[in-house]
Amino acid sequence: MNNIRSTLAAVWRIAAPYFRSEDKWAGRGLLAAVIVLELGGVFLTVLFNRWNNVFYNALQERNQAVFWYQLGYFCVLATFWVALKVYQLYLNQWLQIRWRRWMTGRYLGGWLHDANHYRMQLLGDAADNPDQRIADDTQRFVEQTLGLGIGLLSSVVTLASFVFILWGLSNEAPLHLFGNDIAIPGYLVWGALIYALLGTLLTHLIGWPLVGLNFQQQRFEADFRFNLVRARENAEQIALLRGEPAERTRLLSRFALVVENWIGIMQRTKKVTAFTSSYSQAAVIFPYILVAPAYFAEKIQLGGMMQTASAFGSVQDSLSFIITSYRTIAEWRSVVERLSGFERSIENAAALNVDKNIIHVKPDGHGAIDLEKLVVSLPNGTPLVAADSFSISGNERTLVTGPSGAGKSTLFRAIAGVWPFGSGSISIPSKATLMMLPQRPYFPVGSLKAAIVYPAEAGAFSSDRVRDVLIAVGLPQLAARLDEEAHWNRMLSLGEQQRLGLARAFLHEPQYLFLDEATASLDEASEAALYKLIEKKLPATTIVSIGHRSTLEAFHQRNVVLNRDGDRFELQNRKEDVKVP
């Protein structure tokens, strides 16, 4: 019961926001229409049940007129049934896509809001493979929640409708054993109830491990797909290292987990299917076993017997909803758990950004970036960089050097506001624009123009201006390919990508430009030419560079060096004292 309550609470938490959203009236209207059509289907089922009695009595009595009339009546009912099912499916699918569209937008918004996606990775949260949770799990959640919810409602209404019919038929066809009538009020109802309860209990005892197995299967499948994508993204490095055999072994080991877990699902599903199939087949003849003695004792006619079997089947099907839907319920519960975990991870990442015990980035009216009592730590709490009363003055070019692993890049991330671990504050001039250029810049798949001007829209800059900066950074061969769509991180060399990164900076003209070894893949002459171009095109921009080449010192007014002092690093520059424990 605790599991049921927690699952239903999670479902309500995930599902309810849509029906209170800006699309609530369309969602509520479609849901109401689907429910009304489902109830209409139950009503038609009751009419079909009554038709069984009249039709089969006409056959037994060889009443041709009633027979043909009932065939015509059946055609009318069947026409309504077909129309109802067609539109119920259509409106259900319409509701599914609207609901899924809203959920996808909500999860994408939460995941990509204010660097939550990055902090989720830093936290090492359990929300593995967010792409699968947003793309696959939302689709399964909407489809299965509607299917199970409408199915449960239909079962309840069907049960309420047919219990009265079956109770009345129990009085018309009393239990007849050994030539005697045994008066048990509603014995057919009690028979269906006991049969369904036993079946449900046994099905759950056999099939409960499917919930965990389905959860693991989705995880292993997503991990395997993720590693396939990584192999595709790094095809060049794999080829250069002749790493195909190692990669094949690694991927097959991932797939082995998929196979092993799938075999577990197969074995458990085999047991569940064997029982549920046996249960369903026995349910076909069980009502006849109960009613046949009364029929042979001529207590009821053939039509009454057929109506009783039909009503019993409807009641038994309603009570057996969990049995027939058990595999779907098991998969649905695993989907609910994955989406709940994803929401918790987003909430944890968002909460980390407002925690008091983190680095606080705040706007300030001064014209410099000020670091006050700053301690940048690793996620496990180990101090990495400490800085107090350290400033990055406006319109000044600063070079930061030091050994690898000293925390230079992590300090940049803290200034950008995406690295929360640590304490102290970073004051950024109000309304200042910052741009970080890493060693390997990111370019979205799409047109070359859209990739260069990212994160702005493609139309934010004229094509002529984009061509000009391409020529300026030494990529004239790309000037005619602005409308070409490709995966540019794969198509271009790292040196070309770094030139494109600088082209992006020239277009956006940020007030602060942080270059994290953003020209390291270029030769010294090309690097020098680009730094001269930065001075020319961005004269009002404050430049902060991380680099290891001594030739970079000529292009910076200030040189900050990280030197090891015992078990710590000390950042030395004039009077500034920035220490790294």
From TrEMBL:
Stretches assigned to the ABC transmembrane type-1 domain: 32-331
CDD domains xrefs: ABCD_peroxisomal_ALDP
Annotated function: Involved in beta-(1-->2)glucan export. Transmembrane domains (TMD) form a pore in the inner membrane and the ATP-binding domain (NBD) is responsible for energy generation.
UniProt record similarity statement: Belongs to the ABC transporter superfamily.
One Gene Ontology term, aspect cellular component: plasma membrane
Protein name: Putative ATP-binding cassette transporter
Every ABC transporter domain range: 369-581
Pfam family, one: ABC_tran
Compartment(s): Cell membrane
Main location: membrane
Annotated keywords: ATP-binding, Membrane, Nucleotide-binding, Transmembrane, Transmembrane helix, Transport
Organism this protein belongs to: Bradyrhizobium erythrophlei
GO MF annotations, alphabetized: ABC-type transporter activity; ATP binding; ATP hydrolysis activity
Spans through the membrane: 29-48, 68-91, 146-167, 187-211
Membrane topology, record value: Multi-pass membrane protein
